[in-house]
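Backbones bend. To wit:
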Amino acid sequence: MKIISRLAFSIFLLISLFGEVLAQIPQVPAEMEFADMIIRINPQARREIQLDVDALYRSPKHFQIKLDRVRLYMPFVEREFQAVGVPLDLKYLVIQESGLIADAVSTSNAVGFWQFKQGTAEEVFLQVDRQIDDRKNIVNSSRGAALYLKKHNASFDNWMCALVSYQMGLGGAKAYFGNKYNGKRIVDIDRNSHWYFKKFLAHKVAFENQLTVFTSSGSPRLVEVKVQGPTSLSALAQKYKVSEDHLQEMNKWTSNGKIPAGRAYSVVFVSNDEIDFKTAIVEKNKPNNTNTGSTPKYSTANSYPRIAGNTSKASQPDQITVNELDGVQANKTTTQANFADQIGIKEKKFRRLNDLEAGERIEAGEYYYTEKKKAKAEVATHIVQPGETLWSISQKYGIKLSSLKAKNRIRRDQDLKAGMVLNLQEHRKRGEDIPIVPIQSGSRDVVAKNNTAPTPSRTVQASNSSQASSQSGSSLTHVVSPGDTLYAISKKYGVSVEQIKTWNRIGNQNIISVGQKLTIFKP
């Protein structure tokens, strides 16, 4: 009886709440702001748009379901739009396209949150294959949508035209609009205006003032963790103490529950906990200062560089991003001039973007940037590994070499020591010593004892060339033979695959070639 009473009371509250909402269905104004524009709507168009707004509010049950999804997913849409530089007003388009249903499929076989067809998805660096479908990933698909809209807006300088091009394609939108609205900041909407934009305005009016109606401090929220494969949703369910069924429901972008190697993947799930999951930051990366008597922990960010996009065409320009910057992978060792010509960029600019000296060669398997690197990385620190240089660290995280040097008051590779904890975000205080931690093979977490920890017995000074001409007391050279793999080589010498990749600047695609000389440091 008590259960029935509680249920009846809950239903009463729900009906009362929606009664208030429905009594205050937002009305389409005669003038509204959109992106960087003023939209003026005549009476006939207002009535047309209002019908769509009313339809969205017609069923309280369906409205609540949709609004709950908006509340969960919209923070990630906003974040990705801000990162790309797209006005947040365009975020309502995802509600119009899919209702924020991850595996929505249209009659034209467009898929996912943002309803991408496969070809278009690959144009904006989304992975679509038998294992992964980024169109069903709220983080990656939202970034892809932002890139698509921003690219089209470059042709119009008008976000209304760019938005309509999302439905018509760039060619269709150009044929429809011509240059009538290019650069215009005041647009009049009437009965002849494109239906897709008027429907978008209906979604904006319906949702923009309702996003916080049902939110509270105790409400469930969507959290994201970056995961480097190979792993599985089953393993992650145990780690994060959520059900495997829930992870599968929230991460339909992995077709079989498996997360392959190759890049970091965004795994999301609903949580009521107050745990602060830092997006795109490796866990335990920041010093743990909760206990004043404990020593700070650092971790190596093995998920970097973060590669996204059409990795099957990584050696071609405009196909992948490296740490969220445009980049490309060298498929063979060559000169700067040849490589710059191959990717369609001037040699001096390419050298400047990648902090290269004249004459340094391009290494097979290495990733290079085709846009300016950042002033700081997305993680706070990096532990120097044997064989690393300031340049290789700067490339790994997409941070300018000059910024890396300035933050740590270190200028020469000769001053690097294995185990040094370099700052990647904050500048080290003047006179502050760089912590040195012992490197434990096979372990990601290391503890900083103090700033006067004994210096490792060997300091590796790496040259810009990955070749070693002779064997020394601390290192040897392995020449890659047919059939060799990084795993087989690591087992032969008793080291890890990650160590070999670090020592020889091998990218996440694990590409090695016959005849390549690999430097191996004895454990």
Summary: Residues 344 and 424 are 30 Å apart (CA to CA). The longest strand covers residues 221-228. The mean pLDDT is 80.
